[in-house]
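Task: sequence design from structure.
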C-alpha cells in the first residue's frame, strides 16, 4: 500500500529540444528535426522499495513534451535502444499511413525510423505512444508515452492561460511488485486497472500553484482505467467545484463547457480551465469517482493529486473567452453507413466478430457488446463528431458535442454513432479499443480510405 500521498511535487515533463532544422527537399521551407532515443530508466516510486525499471522516450516517462507550431513540419527519428520492438503513433495527427505507427511496421532493437509529421491541423493536444503489434500495452505502460502540443495563431490570440499556467497532466494507473518493480500487463487478457495513480509519472503528487486561472491538458494514458474527475477543496469537503472544459481531442471546443465532473477514458484528451482565485490558501484535491464500468477500485484510486494554492492574490491577465472557435463538423448524414460491434467473444476481443483485419468507412455505429467493459474507441486519421449515445447515458455529453474527438468512450452496453470525413488522404489506417490490453488481444481492425463513390 502506498502511504506517501501528496508528498512529492508534480513533475513537469521537459520540452523536447530541437536538434536542428533541415530544408524541405521540395519547398525549401525549414523542417524541425528531432532525435529521440527509446531507452531504459529507473524510477523510484515507493520510497521504501527498490526502483522500477521503465523504458521511455529519451529515458523519460512520460517522454519529453513536443511544442509545435501549425505549419512547421517535423521529422522525428525514433532510435530503438530498448529490448522490445516499437512503432510510434502520433495520436491525433492526420499523419500519412507510413508514419502513423502501423502496428506491424515495427522498428527492432538497434534500428531507427524517421517519422514525418505534417503539423497542419488546428491547435490541439496530441500524444505519441507505442503501437507495436501485441506489445503496445507493455510498451506504453512501461513508459513509451508523451505529450505533443500543436499551437496555432488563432488559439494564441485567445489569451488563455499559457506558459507556466498551461500544464499537461498525464494520468496513468499502474501496479507494482513487492520489490518495487512494475507488475507487467504482459500476461493480462482483460484489463489491468492498477492501484497506483500517477500524474506525469509521479504517484499522487502535489502541485504548488497561484490563486489564478490554469489551463490543464488532461490525457488518460492508463492502459485500462477510466476516470471521472472532480475538484474538491479541503474547506468544502464533499462539494464538487465548477470548472470549464475548453478543448478535447481535436482541439478547442466551440465554447467553454461548465462542469463539475469530467469523464476521461483511455487516450482521451480534455483541456480544462480551473480558476483557483477563490481558493486562496486552500488545498484543492483532484478526485476520481468510484464504480466506473467494471474498473476495479483500490484504497486510493479515488484520489489523483493535490493543488496547494498560494495565499496572496496575483495578477491574472489570461482570459476565458465565452466562445472559442467554430468547429468544422462533418456535413450531417442521416444514414448509418457501417455498424461495428465491440465485444468479448469466446474469450477474445472482437470487432464485428473479426480480429485485426480489413473493413471500411463514414457514419459508424459503435456498439459495446456488454460484460461491463469500457471500450474507448480510437479511429486513426480523422476527427469525428459524436452524434448519439444510446443504452447507457443516452446523451452525448455537452463537452463531447461541443468539439470533435478521435476517441470516444463506449461505456458498458452503450451504442454510439460517430461521423467523420475520411480525409485528407487515402490509405490504410487502424481503429481499435484503447484499453491497450484489449487492443493487444485483437480488438483492432483496419479501414481503407479509398474515396470510392457512393
Ligand atoms: Cu492512441 Cu491507435 O492509438
Ligand atoms: Cu476494450
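Answer:
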Amino acid at each position: 500500500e502506498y502511504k506517501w500521498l501528496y508528498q512529492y511535487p508534480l513533475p513537469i515533463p521537459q520540452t523536447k529540444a530541437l536538434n536542428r532544422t533541415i530544408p524541405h527537399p521540395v519547398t525549401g521551407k525549414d523542417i524541425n528535426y528531432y532525435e529521440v532515443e527509446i531507452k531504459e530508466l529507473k524510477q523510484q516510486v515507493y520510497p521504501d522499495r527498490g526502483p522500477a525499471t521503465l523504458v521511455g522516450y529519451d529515458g523519460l516517462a512520460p517522454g519529453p513534451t513536443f511544442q509545435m507550431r501549425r505549419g512547421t513540419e517535423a521529422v522525428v527519428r525514433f532510435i530503438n535502444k530498448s529490448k522490445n520492438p516499437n512503432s510510434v503513433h502520433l495520436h491525433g495527427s492526420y499523419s500519412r499511413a507510413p508514419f502513423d505507427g502501423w502496428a506491424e511496421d515495427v522498428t527492432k532493437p538497434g534500428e531507427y525510423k524517421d517519422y514525418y509529421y505534417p503539423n497542419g491541423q488546428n491547435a490541439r493536444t496530441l500524444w505519441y505512444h507505442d503501437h507495436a503489434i501485441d506489445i503496445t500495452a507493455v510498451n506504453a505502460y512501461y513508459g513509451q508515452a508523451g505529450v505533443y502540443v500543436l499551437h496555432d495563431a488563432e488559439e494564441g490570440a485567445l489569451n488563455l492561460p499559457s506558459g507556466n499556467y498551461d500544464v499537461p497532466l498525464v494520468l496513468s494507473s499502474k501496479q507494482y511488485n513487492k520489490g518495487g518493480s512494475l507488475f507487467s500487463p504482459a500476461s493480462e487478457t482483460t484489463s489491468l486497472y492498477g492501484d497506483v495513480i500517477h500524474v506525469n509519472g509521479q504517484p499522487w503528487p502535489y502541485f504548488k500553484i497561484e490563486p489564478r486561472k490554469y489551463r490543464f491538458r488532461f490525457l488518460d494514458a492508463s492502459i485500462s482505467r477510466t476516470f471521472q474527475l472532480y475538484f474538491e477543496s479541503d474547506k468544502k469537503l464533499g462539494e464538487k467545484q465548477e470548472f470549464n472544459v475548453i478543448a478535447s481531442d481535436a482541439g478547442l471546443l466551440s465554447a467553454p463547457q461548465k462542469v463539475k465532473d469530467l469523464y476521461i477514458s483511455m487516450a482521451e484528451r480534455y483541456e480544462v480551465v480551473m480558476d483557483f482565485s477563490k481558493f486562496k490558501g486552500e488545498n484543492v484535491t483532484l478526485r476520481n469517482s468510484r464504480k466506473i464500468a467494471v474498473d476495479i477500485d483500490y484504497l486510493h484510486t479515488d484520489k489523483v493529486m493535490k493543488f496547494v494554492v498560494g495565499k496572496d492574490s496575483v495578477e491574472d491577465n489570461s482570459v476565458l473567452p465565452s466562445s472559442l472557435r467554430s468547429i468544422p463538423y462533418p456535413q450531417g448524414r442521416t444514414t448509418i453507413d457501417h455498424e461495428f460491434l465491440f465485444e468479448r467473444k469466446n474469450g477474445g476481443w472482437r470487432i464485428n466478430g473479426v480480429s485485426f483485419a480489413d473493413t471500411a468507412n463514414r457514419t459508424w455505429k459503435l456498439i459495446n457488446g456488454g460484460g461491463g467493459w469500457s471500450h474507448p474507441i480510437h479511429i486513426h486519421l480523422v476527427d469525428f463528431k459524436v452524434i448519439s449515445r444510446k443504452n447507457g447515458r443516452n446523451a452525448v455529453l455537452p463537452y463531447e458535442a461541443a468539439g470533435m474527438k478521435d476517441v470516444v468512450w463506449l461505456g458498458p452496453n452503450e451504442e454510439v454513432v460517430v461521423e467523420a470525413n475520411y480525409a485528407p488522404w487515402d490509405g490504410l489506417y487502424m481503429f481499435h479499443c484503447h484499453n491497450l490490453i484489449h487492443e493487444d488481444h485483437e480488438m483492432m481492425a483496419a479501414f481503407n480510405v479509398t474515396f470510392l463513390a457512393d
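The longest strand covers residues 30-43.
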